């Protein structure tokens, strides 16, 4: 009899279905020479500090650093009451261990997820019972019937996965040591008042620093004016095209008078096209999704989505057998998957209107072992979903479409560049025009991606044209944009190495696969969510910004390596090397012990300063409702009104909670109203009450009086829908 341990009940059910097992018992399936049981993710957790030593029940500075001589595990705590074990986990653990000890069970198979967390979950449960039976590992990238049967026919000895276990344990112990010690000591040192502790983490702080650095760039940005000259040229056939004035490859000028002079000189002059370049170019589809790219794509395209939500939906699709393993950093497929991929494509494409254009091709761009780290890119399986929730449909369609694009014709376009020179005028520069024509739509047809082509008339080199119109325009340099989850995930993925926002996926692949990153595909979404939950960052629409608490922490906290992308990247790289078996676990942990001890001493010796003050009436971290229209600061909710965070610097913008104008209309300002005013400059308000007591709806605006410093309300009734 074989005992299989799955990570979740849904996966156990998939395995049972693949093996045709119907018999369900309390906590397991049984039949056809298999017993299949399951965990609920982590059934065990590391001891809390107080479990090792009762003196750690209360936090005292002299008790830190606290480093156990040996790490111990216990049944995971009840989330509602941490002093007690979770009874469901306790019961399931007892069932698993009872099944392991059954006389008829001759071997144990761990079928937890094929990553370091999955290895840790399975090994912590199995080895806790000190089994004498052989232990095997089922390593799958999807839970379809064919894959389960194939995987069971090619099991590995669990001992071969020891490096994966070492990496999982090293990550877990390191995060416990840094988290427990530095969170405790930092809270004792820098927090006034009782409440939620300051949260210090190995992945949390460098991620915060990325957002902080972008905020500082934006704050320190000084806008500069620049000028451009655009001329409209008319051909002999009365067609026209635009060209931008360029000197020495530069079309932006700091001095307007230079362009004003050129503008004056060229009026009604003739010009000639001295150069015409026409180039056919190919446009390849974007790479297959890895988790970070999928999260970035969905969060930037759809409102209300977070990276955490994308991961949860993708995980559900994986457990339902519709997609392959989602927690991957790869954007290519293993070369051994050629046959299977062809089968998937045939199944997925059969109902598509453009199926005749789809052709399976074995390309190096798609199938490349050198570009695969542990798991291949995310693709659909051959199991087609019959019914999906709206959220599942969004994620599944994105993955399916990205997959199909790889086998559609390559998009082709024609790029034309014209250089026009003004005749009989002594000018240093020329006018440059560019245009594109899409020749082959190809893979863009899958998502109806429209190319914004600027068409040029069919003119020839040496043709004479006339300056029909010209205009000198004023522009202002723009500050960097705040980070979104999409841009943040990319920086985390590459530790900021050679990162540019406009950089293509292709250029980033190399740096992603080195293991030099912040966190893993599986943990980055949780890190962003945690930063928000602990009050270090806030969301402004899709933008991520630091809160006052987050900024104070970066400015004040003395353990600077924890904010350093290089330092964190090296730690993650070492964990990756442990997983590959090239670095010893003990060596890594010694580094962590030393770092933790040194960091605790640094905090103890630091000057007395308050980062986090908690009182009954003040919240340490307030939600940012929008940007102040007066000074560009953050609008937050206070006790008496919604005001600017820069009030100490003299900003007087505020919407009082007892505002008399709104009170006369039987309304009070709400967060929703304030957010709408700040983002849309007006808010649609229902249920206002007139002096006669009648209810009505209207648009309200809150704008600065041109003759005074104060703001006042105005009301609009046009196009009001009841």
General description of the model:
- The protein is an alpha+beta fold.
- It folds into 5 domains: 2-154, Rossmann fold (3-Layer(aba) Sandwich), CATH 3.40.50; 170-220 and 482-613, Topoisomerase I, domain 2 (Orthogonal Bundle), CATH 1.10.460; 225-284 and 411-476, Topoisomerase I, domain 3, CATH 2.70.20; 291-405, Topoisomerase I, domain 4 (Orthogonal Bundle), CATH 1.10.290.10; 624-716, no CATH class.
- 34% of the residues lie in helices and 22% in strands.
- The chain has 20 helices and 29 strands.
- Strand 9 (107-111), helix 4 (116-128) and strand 10 (135-137) form a beta-alpha-beta unit.
- Mean pLDDT is 91; it is low at 498-503 and 506-513.
Task: Give a short overview.
The protein has 722 residues and is of the alpha+beta class. Helix content is 34%, strand content 22%.
For this entry, give a set of tags:
7-stranded mixed beta sheet; Topoisomerase I, domain 2; alpha+beta; 5 domains; single chain; Rossmann fold; 722 residues; Topoisomerase I, domain 3
Q: Layout of SSEs?
A:
Layout: E1 2-6, H1 9-18, E2 24-25, E3 28-31, E4 34-38, E5 44-46, H2 49-52, E6 73-75, E7 77-78, E8 81-85, H3 87-100, E9 107-111, H4 116-128, E10 135-137, H5 145-152, E11 156-157, H6 162-190, E12 191-192, H7 204-219, E13 225-234, E14 240-246, H8 256-266, E15 270-283, H9 291-301, H10 307-319, H11 338-349, H12 390-405, E16 411-422, E17 430-440, E18 464-476, E19 483-484, H13 485-494, H14 505-512, H15 524-533, E20 537-540, E21 543-546, H16 548-556, H17 565-580, H18 585-605, E22 612-613, E23 624-627, E24 634-637, E25 641-644, E26 654-656, H19 660-664, H20 671-680, E27 683-689, E28 695-704, E29 711-716
Parallel strand pairs: 1-4, 1-9, 9-10, 12-22
Antiparallel strand pairs: 2-3, 3-4, 5-6, 7-8, 10-11, 13-14, 13-18, 14-17, 15-16, 15-18, 16-17, 19-21, 20-21, 23-24, 24-25, 25-26, 27-28, 28-29
């Amino acid at each position: 009899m074989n005992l299989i341990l799955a990570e979740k009940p849904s996966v156990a059910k998939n395995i049972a279905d693949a093996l045709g097992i119907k018999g369900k018992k309390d906590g397991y399936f049984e039949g056809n020479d298999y017993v299949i049981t399951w965990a609920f993710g982590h059934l065990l957790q590391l001891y809390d500090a107080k479990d090792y030593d009762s003196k750690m029940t209360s936090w005292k500075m002299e008790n830190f650093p606290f480093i156990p001589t040996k790490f111990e595990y216990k049944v995971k705590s009840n989330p509602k009451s941490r002093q007690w074990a979770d009874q469901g986990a306790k019961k399931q653990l007892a069932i698993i261990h009872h099944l392991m000890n059954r006389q008829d069970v001759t071997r144990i198979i761990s079928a937890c997820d094929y990553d370091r967390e999955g290895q840790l979950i399975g090994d912590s449960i199995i080895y806790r019972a000190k089994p004498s039976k052989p232990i095997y590992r089922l390593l799958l990238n999807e839970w379809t019937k064919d894959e389960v049967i194939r995987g069971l026919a090619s099991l590995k000895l669990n001992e071969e996965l020891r490096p994966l276990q070492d990496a999982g344990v090293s990550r877990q112990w390191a995060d416990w040591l840094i988290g427990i010690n530095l969170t405790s000591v930092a809270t004792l040192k820098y927090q006034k008042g009782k409440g939620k502790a300051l949260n210090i983490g190995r992945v949390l702080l460098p991620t915060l620093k990325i957002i902080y650095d972008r905020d500082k760039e934006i704050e320190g940005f000084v806008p500069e004016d620049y000028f451009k000259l655009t001329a409209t040229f008319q051909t002999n056939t009365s067609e026209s095209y635009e060209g931008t004035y360029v000197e020495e490859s530069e079309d932006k000028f700091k001095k307007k008078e230079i362009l004003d002079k050129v503008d004056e000189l060229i009026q009604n002059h003739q010009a000639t096209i001295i150069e015409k370049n026409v180039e056919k170019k190919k446009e390849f589809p974007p790479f297959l999704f890895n988790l970070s790219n999928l999260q970035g794509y969905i969060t930037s395209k759809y409102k209300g989505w977070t990276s955490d939500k994308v991961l949860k939906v993708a995980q559900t699709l994986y457990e339902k057998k519709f997609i392959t393993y989602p927690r991957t950093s790869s954007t290519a497929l293993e070369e051994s998957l050629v046959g299977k991929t062809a089968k998937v494509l045939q199944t997925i494409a059969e109902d598509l209107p453009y199926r005749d254009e789809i052709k399976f091709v074995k390309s190096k761009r798609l199938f490349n072992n050198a570009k695969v780290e542990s798991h291949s890119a995310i693709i659909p399986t051959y199991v087609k979903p019959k019914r999906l929730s709206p959220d599942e449909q969004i994620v599944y369609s994105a993955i399916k479409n990205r997959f199909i694009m790889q086998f559609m014709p390559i998009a082709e376009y024609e790029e034309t560049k014209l250089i026009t020179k003004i005749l009989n005028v002594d000018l240093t520069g020329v006018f440059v025009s560019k245009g594109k024509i899409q020749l082959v739509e190809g893979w863009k047809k899958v998502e109806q991606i429209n190319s914004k082509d600027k068409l040029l008339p069919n003119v020839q080199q040496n043709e004479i044209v006339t300056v029909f119109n010209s205009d000198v325009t004023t522009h202002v340099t723009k500050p960097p944009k705040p980070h979104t989850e999409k841009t943040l995930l990319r920086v985390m993925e590459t530790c900021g190495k050679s990162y540019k926002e406009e950089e293509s996926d292709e250029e980033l692949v190399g740096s992603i696969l080195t293991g030099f990153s912040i966190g893993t595909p599986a943990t980055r979404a949780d890190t962003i969510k945690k930063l928000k939950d602990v009050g270090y960052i806030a969301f402004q629409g899709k933008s991520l910004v630091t809160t006052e608490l987050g900024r104070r922490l970066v400015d004040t906290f003395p353990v600077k390596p924890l904010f350093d992308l290089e330092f964190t990247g090296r730690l993650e790289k070492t964990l990756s090397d442990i997983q590959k078996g090239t670095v010893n676990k003990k060596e890594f942990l010694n580094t962590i012990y030393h770092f933790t001890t040194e960091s605790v001493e640094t905090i103890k010796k630091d000057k007395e300063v308050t980062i986090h003050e908690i009182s009954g009436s003040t919240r340490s971290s307030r939600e940012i409702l929008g940007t102040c229209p007066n000074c560009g600061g953050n609008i937050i909710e206070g006790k008496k009104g919604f005001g600017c965070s820069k009030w100490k610097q003299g900003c007087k913008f505020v919407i009082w909670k007892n505002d008399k104008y709104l009170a006369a209309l039987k309304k009070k300002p709400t967060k929703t109203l304030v957010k709408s005013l700040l983002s849309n400059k007006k808010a649609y308000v229902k249920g206002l009450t007139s002096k006669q007591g009648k209810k009505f709806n209207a648009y309200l605006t809150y704008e600065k009086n041109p003759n005074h410093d104060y703001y006042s309300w105005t009301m609009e009734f046009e196009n009001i829908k009841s």
